[in-house]
Amino acid sequence: MFFLVLLGICLLIFANPFSAEDKEKMAFSEEKGTAAIITNIDTNKLNAFKFREELKKEGYSSFVDFALLPNEKVEIIINLTKEVTQAQEEKIKEIIQDFLNQNGLALNSFEISVANFYAKTIKHNESAKRISYVDLQGYIFENLTKENYGLAVSHEVLEDQTIFHISLSKEDFNNENTKIKIEKIAYDTIKEKKFKGDFKVNLTVPPGNK
Questions:
Q1: Which of 74, 105, 130 is the last residue before a domain boundary?
Q2: How far apart are the C-alpha atoms of 10 and 30, rounded to whole Å?
Protein backbone atom coordinates (compact mmCIF):
# COMPACT_ATOMS: atom_id res chain seq x y z
CA MET A 1 0.00 0.00 0.00
CA PHE A 2 1.22 3.46 -0.91
CA PHE A 3 1.93 5.14 2.37
CA LEU A 4 3.52 8.42 3.41
CA VAL A 5 3.85 10.17 6.70
CA LEU A 6 4.92 13.79 6.55
CA LEU A 7 5.78 15.37 9.90
CA GLY A 8 4.34 18.69 11.04
CA ILE A 9 5.79 22.02 9.99
CA CYS A 10 7.13 22.64 13.45
CA LEU A 11 9.02 19.35 13.41
CA LEU A 12 10.63 19.91 10.03
CA ILE A 13 13.33 22.13 11.48
CA PHE A 14 14.77 19.19 13.41
CA ALA A 15 15.68 17.26 10.25
CA ASN A 16 19.18 15.77 10.22
CA PRO A 17 21.70 16.55 7.43
CA PHE A 18 21.89 13.97 4.67
CA SER A 19 23.93 10.89 5.45
CA ALA A 20 26.04 9.10 2.86
CA GLU A 21 23.29 6.48 2.62
CA ASP A 22 20.64 9.15 2.02
CA LYS A 23 22.73 10.70 -0.75
CA GLU A 24 23.18 7.31 -2.36
CA LYS A 25 19.42 6.74 -2.31
CA MET A 26 18.90 10.15 -3.86
CA ALA A 27 21.19 9.39 -6.80
CA PHE A 28 18.41 8.14 -9.06
CA SER A 29 19.53 7.51 -12.63
CA GLU A 30 17.63 8.36 -15.80
CA GLU A 31 16.76 4.68 -16.12
CA LYS A 32 15.13 4.46 -12.68
CA GLY A 33 12.80 7.39 -13.37
CA THR A 34 9.71 8.39 -11.41
CA ALA A 35 8.88 4.94 -10.07
CA ALA A 36 12.11 4.93 -8.09
CA ILE A 37 11.45 8.45 -6.82
CA ILE A 38 8.01 7.48 -5.53
CA THR A 39 9.37 4.27 -4.01
CA ASN A 40 11.91 6.39 -2.14
CA ILE A 41 9.47 9.16 -1.23
CA ASP A 42 10.84 9.38 2.33
CA THR A 43 14.13 10.52 0.84
CA ASN A 44 12.28 13.04 -1.32
CA LYS A 45 10.66 14.26 1.86
CA LEU A 46 14.13 15.03 3.17
CA ASN A 47 14.81 16.90 -0.06
CA ALA A 48 12.10 19.35 0.98
CA PHE A 49 14.24 20.39 3.94
CA LYS A 50 17.14 21.12 1.64
CA PHE A 51 14.95 22.99 -0.85
CA ARG A 52 13.77 25.25 1.94
CA GLU A 53 17.34 25.78 3.15
CA GLU A 54 18.57 26.71 -0.31
CA LEU A 55 15.68 29.11 -0.87
CA LYS A 56 16.15 30.63 2.58
CA LYS A 57 19.75 31.49 1.68
CA GLU A 58 18.34 33.66 -1.10
CA GLY A 59 15.82 35.29 1.25
CA TYR A 60 12.79 33.19 0.33
CA SER A 61 10.59 31.62 3.02
CA SER A 62 8.64 28.70 1.62
CA PHE A 63 6.52 25.59 2.03
CA VAL A 64 7.41 22.63 -0.20
CA ASP A 65 5.00 19.94 -1.40
CA PHE A 66 5.01 17.08 -3.89
CA ALA A 67 2.40 15.73 -6.31
CA LEU A 68 2.33 12.95 -8.89
CA LEU A 69 1.31 14.14 -12.37
CA PRO A 70 -0.55 12.11 -15.02
CA ASN A 71 2.66 11.97 -17.07
CA GLU A 72 4.30 10.25 -14.04
CA LYS A 73 6.52 13.22 -13.31
CA VAL A 74 6.78 14.53 -9.76
CA GLU A 75 5.58 18.11 -9.31
CA ILE A 76 7.58 20.13 -6.78
CA ILE A 77 5.25 22.80 -5.42
CA ILE A 78 7.01 25.82 -3.92
CA ASN A 79 4.67 28.08 -1.95
CA LEU A 80 6.38 31.35 -1.06
CA THR A 81 5.31 33.62 1.77
CA LYS A 82 5.75 36.78 -0.31
CA GLU A 83 5.10 38.00 -3.85
CA VAL A 84 7.94 37.58 -6.34
CA THR A 85 8.64 38.93 -9.81
CA GLN A 86 8.83 36.72 -12.89
CA ALA A 87 12.63 37.01 -12.79
CA GLN A 88 12.68 35.92 -9.14
CA GLU A 89 10.39 32.97 -9.93
CA GLU A 90 12.81 31.81 -12.62
CA LYS A 91 15.69 32.18 -10.14
CA ILE A 92 13.81 30.02 -7.63
CA LYS A 93 13.31 27.32 -10.26
CA GLU A 94 17.03 27.47 -11.06
CA ILE A 95 17.85 26.94 -7.37
CA ILE A 96 15.67 23.81 -7.27
CA GLN A 97 17.06 22.51 -10.56
CA ASP A 98 20.62 23.01 -9.30
CA PHE A 99 19.77 21.00 -6.19
CA LEU A 100 18.29 18.18 -8.27
CA ASN A 101 21.40 18.12 -10.46
CA GLN A 102 23.75 18.14 -7.50
CA ASN A 103 22.00 15.09 -6.05
CA GLY A 104 21.84 13.08 -9.25
CA LEU A 105 18.08 13.48 -9.69
CA ALA A 106 16.90 13.48 -13.31
CA LEU A 107 15.45 16.88 -14.22
CA ASN A 108 13.05 15.32 -16.72
CA SER A 109 11.36 13.46 -13.83
CA PHE A 110 10.22 16.73 -12.22
CA GLU A 111 8.12 19.80 -12.86
CA ILE A 112 8.46 22.86 -10.63
CA SER A 113 5.55 25.12 -9.69
CA VAL A 114 5.94 28.40 -7.80
CA ALA A 115 2.99 30.01 -6.01
CA ASN A 116 2.16 32.50 -3.26
CA PHE A 117 1.08 30.90 0.03
CA TYR A 118 -1.03 33.96 0.88
CA ALA A 119 -2.71 34.36 -2.52
CA LYS A 120 -6.45 35.04 -2.28
CA THR A 121 -7.14 32.39 -4.90
CA ILE A 122 -5.22 29.13 -4.84
CA LYS A 123 -4.69 27.42 -8.18
CA HIS A 124 -5.02 23.66 -7.83
CA ASN A 125 -3.74 21.21 -10.42
CA GLU A 126 -6.82 18.99 -10.58
CA SER A 127 -5.01 16.31 -12.55
CA ALA A 128 -2.24 15.89 -9.97
CA LYS A 129 -2.30 13.39 -7.10
CA ARG A 130 -0.94 15.06 -4.00
CA ILE A 131 1.60 13.10 -1.98
CA SER A 132 1.99 15.78 0.67
CA TYR A 133 -0.07 18.67 2.07
CA VAL A 134 2.41 20.88 3.92
CA ASP A 135 0.66 23.98 2.54
CA LEU A 136 -2.79 22.91 3.74
CA GLN A 137 -1.23 21.90 7.04
CA GLY A 138 0.15 25.42 7.28
CA TYR A 139 -3.24 27.01 6.56
CA ILE A 140 -4.88 24.89 9.27
CA PHE A 141 -2.15 25.73 11.78
CA GLU A 142 -2.42 29.47 11.03
CA ASN A 143 -6.20 29.51 11.48
CA LEU A 144 -5.97 27.56 14.72
CA THR A 145 -3.26 29.90 16.01
CA LYS A 146 -5.48 32.92 15.32
CA GLU A 147 -7.99 31.40 17.76
CA ASN A 148 -5.26 30.38 20.23
CA TYR A 149 -5.83 26.67 19.60
CA GLY A 150 -3.47 23.84 18.82
CA LEU A 151 0.11 23.03 19.77
CA ALA A 152 1.15 21.49 16.46
CA VAL A 153 -0.29 20.06 13.26
CA SER A 154 1.03 17.15 11.23
CA HIS A 155 -0.43 15.05 8.46
CA GLU A 156 -0.45 11.53 7.13
CA VAL A 157 -1.23 10.72 3.50
CA LEU A 158 -2.72 7.27 3.01
CA GLU A 159 -3.76 5.62 -0.23
CA ASP A 160 -7.36 6.82 -0.03
CA GLN A 161 -7.39 9.39 2.79
CA THR A 162 -5.35 12.19 4.35
CA ILE A 163 -5.39 12.59 8.13
CA PHE A 164 -4.49 15.83 9.88
CA HIS A 165 -3.30 15.25 13.43
CA ILE A 166 -3.85 18.28 15.66
CA SER A 167 -2.02 18.28 18.97
CA LEU A 168 -3.95 20.00 21.78
CA SER A 169 -3.36 21.00 25.35
CA LYS A 170 -4.88 18.69 27.95
CA GLU A 171 -7.40 21.39 28.84
CA ASP A 172 -8.60 21.81 25.24
CA PHE A 173 -8.69 18.06 24.65
CA ASN A 174 -10.95 17.54 27.67
CA ASN A 175 -13.37 20.26 26.57
CA GLU A 176 -15.88 18.84 24.08
CA ASN A 177 -17.08 22.25 22.91
CA THR A 178 -13.50 23.34 22.22
CA LYS A 179 -12.80 20.15 20.30
CA ILE A 180 -15.86 20.76 18.12
CA LYS A 181 -14.67 24.32 17.41
CA ILE A 182 -11.18 23.10 16.51
CA GLU A 183 -12.50 20.43 14.16
CA LYS A 184 -14.75 23.02 12.51
CA ILE A 185 -11.81 25.39 11.96
CA ALA A 186 -9.83 22.60 10.31
CA TYR A 187 -12.64 21.41 8.05
CA ASP A 188 -13.65 24.98 7.17
CA THR A 189 -10.04 25.70 6.17
CA ILE A 190 -9.96 22.69 3.85
CA LYS A 191 -13.23 23.84 2.27
CA GLU A 192 -12.14 27.49 2.04
CA LYS A 193 -8.89 26.60 0.27
CA LYS A 194 -10.80 24.28 -2.09
CA PHE A 195 -8.65 21.20 -1.55
CA LYS A 196 -10.34 18.08 -2.89
CA GLY A 197 -10.05 14.62 -1.40
CA ASP A 198 -11.01 12.58 1.63
CA PHE A 199 -9.70 14.45 4.69
CA LYS A 200 -10.02 13.49 8.33
CA VAL A 201 -9.11 15.46 11.47
CA ASN A 202 -7.66 13.59 14.45
CA LEU A 203 -7.29 15.42 17.78
CA THR A 204 -4.51 14.25 20.09
CA VAL A 205 -2.63 15.17 23.26
CA PRO A 206 1.18 14.94 23.45
CA PRO A 207 2.22 12.02 25.74
CA GLY A 208 3.82 14.38 28.25
CA ASN A 209 0.63 16.43 28.59
CA LYS A 210 -1.79 13.61 29.36
A1: 130
A2: 34
